[in-house]
Amino acid sequence: MFDDAERAYLLASKYPSVRRLALLGLRDLVLAQSMWARDFDAYERESIAVPPSKSGQWRKRRPDEALRILFEASELDEATEPEAIVLLACVYMQLADWNMAGAAFSRYLDKTSPSKSVLERWGRKETPDDLFLRAKISFGSDNELGRRQAEEALAGWLGWWRVTDCEVAGYGTNRQFPARVEVKGKATSVSVRSWLIQNNEVCEREATLHFSEPYVAQYELAEVLPRFGMILANERWLIADSAHVKSCDWHLFSEPILALQDDRRALLMR
Q1: Domain count within the chain
Q2: Alpha-carbon span 23 to 245, nearest angstrom
Q3: E strands present in the chain
Q4: Residues 16-62: tens digit of each pLDDT
Q5: Which residue range is the domain that position 191 belongs to?
Q6: Residue 43: inside a domain, yes or no?
Q7: What is the pLDDT of residues 188-223, one digit of tens each?
């Protein structure tokens, strides 16, 4: 399906009347593929994901390719196409180029004329979605600024919501793990053999799964975050070991996580 969609976009891009639209669609496709490749690689490195027999081009995709396509498509007037600048900011976020993402988003706000309804409802030109996106971008390079901007986005709701800038901690990776720990066993590895049907063929796979030593932790204060139960300890430590997915997917399964910086700090709204 990816290959068919890419061929369709490339064919459409040859026609001047739809070239820009086709390239923007191709950019979305390539960016999605690069995110899939990043997530798949995170699991495959630990033998959790089974590599497809025919991986296709999507396994090689990277966000900078989407950036190149977007520049190619951006032969347009940004004043009349501010959405293209938001796309640019999102691509820079995937590249962790926070300065360029912030510059693109500021340019988007400068080019956007606020609607009357937005001004009447919020009393400013930025919507809450705009403010949250700005906070996520800022958090990538300046944790405190990102936290303040998230609080600004929640103006009037801080009695109901809290914004927390916290550190990510894992037992064995942090010298000051915020808990009393009792180890209950040894690290172990298990070989798993499976049979999959791919392309009308039965394929045998064998993978070795590695498990770190099990432990019981006692925290002074622990809060279980929805939906999949990550632990926030002592109101400042997000416990990586309490997640059942890789960090690239934390924001999908733990709704309070607004942003993550280099797997070291997280911005929470709860």
Answers
A1: 1
A2: 33
A3: 163-169, 180-183, 188-198, 201-211, 215-218, 222-224, 231-233, 237-239, 257-261, 265-269
A4: 888 888 888 888 888 888 888 888 888 888 878 777 656 567 788 88
A5: 187-212
A6: no
A7: 999 988 887 777 788 888 888 888 888 898 999 999
